[in-house]
Amino acid sequence: MARLVDWLTGGDLRSDGAADQAAQAVLQNGQLMADLAEGLLHADALVRGRTLDAMEKVARTRPELVHPYLPQVINLLNTEETMLARMHAAMLFGDMALYEQDIPQMLPILLGMLKDPKAFTKGWAISSLCIISRKYPQYHQEIAASIQRLENDPGAAVQTRARKAMAVLSDPNRPFPKGWIKSTKLGL
Which Gene3D superfamilies match (predicted)? Predict the structure, then answer.
């Protein structure tokens, strides 16, 4: 059998390739998570992005499989510039908000992503920050102030997401917009 990380090669950044299949394989056999995580260290940005895509999909239902690799993800984001990787990392951090001890490491990265040049990365950072704010109110003020600045972002999609986020952040009983929460474990 080919190594799982090999499934994520080829094509271009517009395709998720076999990330869905890699995630399914890990969900069926958790021991494959180590093989998937090798993609975080791959020289090819495409493989790193697809690895994070697959990891995010695993984390939705089996975050405990991804959690041991969270320090590697955080370390990767110190230098990673590829939109595919950054966007999926932003999504992954929302799923990983279950682990309160990791919020101090994830929060500055997500706040930094609010300045990302790509709207998709900013958008998913906003969603994940809202999840963190709802779960851990001690971060609410910092998150709300940072997101509120984006209501005047040059991009219409970011402005819209920021306005929706501010509505969620201003009312603790307001449901999240559809599609913002991918995890089945968050209980929000």
Answer: Leucine-rich Repeat Variant
